[in-house]
Amino acid sequence: MENKGLPLELGTKDIGKLLLQYSLPAIIAMTASSLYNITDSIFIGHGIGPLAIAGLAITFPLMNLASAFGSLVGVGASTLLSVKLGQKDYSTANNILGNVVTMNLIMGIAYSIVMLLFLNPILYFFGASNITLPYAHDFMVIILLGNVVTHMYLGLNALLRSAGSPEKAMFATIFTVIINLILNPLFIFVFHWGIRGSALATVISQITVLSWQIYLFNNKNNFLHFQKGTFKLKRRIVIDSLSIGMSPFLMNTASCIIVILINKGLLKYGGDLAVGAYGIINRIAFLFVMITIGLNQGMQPIAGYNYGAAHYSRVRKVLKKAITYATIIMSIGFIIVQLTPHTVASIFTSDQKLIDLSTTGLRIVFIFYPIVGFQMVTSTFFQSIGMPNKAIFLSLTRQVLFLIPCLLILPHFFGITGIWASMPIADFVACTVAAIMLYFQFAKIKNK
């Protein structure tokens, strides 16, 4: 393969240059992915109305759950693929590719059928009201009909990245955003298809890029390509893929539960527009979180390689740089939101009440954002050095151990403010736990 010299540079090249080299494609892809979601909300907010944004926010748990099943296959299989390529086991690598297609077909179709059969009760459970249900229902019907495409697109993109083509994976994500940016206003403002038009733009953009991915994997000149006989499920590949993918699956599932609790609480204490305000806040928060995730993806191989090679000074350097950059990224988000929350909310809607609700929520939710990057980097760091249990614990502390109790208790005393405040409180406590765990981990490294 063309990247034979890569491990050597991981242990010798300047850490700052390495981190930039490995992070930039991932950051660009993650930013594009965030913009993909933000543009949907902007067009829906201005083209359809504030209640449509609330309806869209109701669909977040369903989207998170779909991502959970997608990551169960995609993340697990792509990690397994990296190992097999490192071992020069191209036969198994091609079997993994075929099995990913089959697993995504099965999961994607099964998920769509179950959700479509019980869609309205599920949406009511997720926090829909009689007013927002039509918007959420119309959006999700089209998204679920195209769900298998979404699973396949995300799965093949993960394999592209692991097969040494991060640029192609990045371009695939960027293309979906560009197509979506063209089709969304066309379907909403010109054809007047409403929220269905936005969903259709999303599915069509993914179908277009999936066609390109299939073309790439059909090229027999590539060492990794579709082959006859590789689509039959192999027990070992399925078990290993699902085992590795269980961690991100659990994290996405936890996110789904959190969003349900937030939406139901906001509906109870603030009404439909409060749910819409969270839809806006979530999109903005997601942008900075995804950029930091891109940074983490760049840090991961550098930290893992140097930890394995016992180059502990390089491990400390990459961790410090990653924490510094993550803090800068999240601090930019904090400054923008605290200084111009009204302007930020106005990007999504012209409804004054929704803008006011979003402004209050943004300022509270982002209070401790400058330190959130530290917690995210620390969690990824433990995963990078072969300590997945600590990584899972850190990832779930914020969502399960701290945020859920806050969401269940604080609103009883402080109403909607209690819901907004639950998020920064969980952030602060989770960052404290991460700092303690990191301190003890480096004490062990120092002893080595």
From TrEMBL:
Which NCBIfam families does the entry link to?
Answer: matE
The membrane topology of this protein is:
Multi-pass membrane protein
**One GO molecular-function entry:** xenobiotic transmembrane transporter activity
Subcellular localization, per the record? Cell membrane
GO BP terms: response to antibiotic
According to UniProt, the name of this protein is: Multidrug export protein MepA
Residue ranges spanning the membrane: these are: 20-39, 96-119, 139-160, 172-193, 199-217, 237-262, 274-295, 322-341, 361-382, 391-413, 419-440
Lineage of origin: Bacteria, Pseudomonadati, Bacteroidota, Flavobacteriia, Flavobacteriales
| Family of the protein in this entry | Belongs to the multi antimicrobial extrusion (MATE) (TC 2.A.66.1) family. MepA subfamily.
Instruction: Write one Pfam family the protein is assigned to.
Output: MatE
Keywords from the named record: Antibiotic resistance, Cell membrane, Membrane, Transmembrane, Transmembrane helix, Transport
Query: What's a single GO CC term here?
Result: plasma membrane
